[in-house]
UniProtKB/TrEMBL annotation:
Protein's UniProt name: Uncharacterized protein
Provenance organism: Limosilactobacillus panis
Length: 71
């Protein structure tokens, strides 16, 4: 009898976990467009920054390369 009660409790807990998982998946699906938009904006900002400062980045990389060759 105790095993049946334990099994029923486990099944109930599993059902509750599945319900919570489904709710979380739905929330994730709803937030996905905002996350995608943020990623595109962040990538655009990074691309603009890199284009603007590419000359400095190249100079820094040249210095790093020279220092690496010395060691």
């Amino acid at each position: 009898m105790k095993t049946i009660k334990t099994a029923l409790a486990d099944v109930k807990q599993l059902c509750n976990s599945i319900t919570e998982l489904n709710a979380n998946v739905d929330q994730l699906k709803k937030s996905w467009p905002a996350v995608t938009e943020f990623l595109h904006e962040a990538q655009g900002a990074l691309d603009r920054w890199q284009f603007k400062d590419q000359a400095r980045i190249d100079k820094i990389q040249a210095i790093v390369d020279r220092l690496s060759k010395r060691n």
